[in-house]
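User: My instructor asked us to take a sequence, write out its structure as tokens, and then describe one feature of it. I'm not sure where to start. Here is the sequence I was given:
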Amino acid sequence: MPENAKHAIKTYFDYINQGTPNGYQTETITGKLISGNTGGTKVAGSSVPAGVRFTDPDFIVFINKMDLVMDKLQVVNYQCYMYLILRYDLNASCKEIASTLGCSERSCRRLHKKGIVFVMDNIV
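Assistant: Let's start with the prediction itself. The structure tokens for your sequence are:
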């Protein structure tokens, strides 16, 4: 189950950053659907059924849920939110994240676990 949450988070960041300079989203999800600029056929873990494509409405529902989960996490636990961005969006190592957040590597492992559990509990 945690692997599915990790895959879902990675897929989410891959989707919102695809084809955008510096990782900034330049087009809304609805805009991407209208323009047909929705990417390939990547599938997240158990949150998105096998065979669902980026253009499928079910995938858009998943992305919208992830948007809400990440927004909620940002409010509830900003450090966990930053950890997930650094880890899954920027592919930073635990050591780099610890340095950036000003915490120990052990604290990073705790933040990782808390973030994954939060996503798993709130993605439903």
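For the description part of your assignment, you could build on this observation: Residues 2-122 form one domain. Try explaining in your own words what that tells you about the chain.
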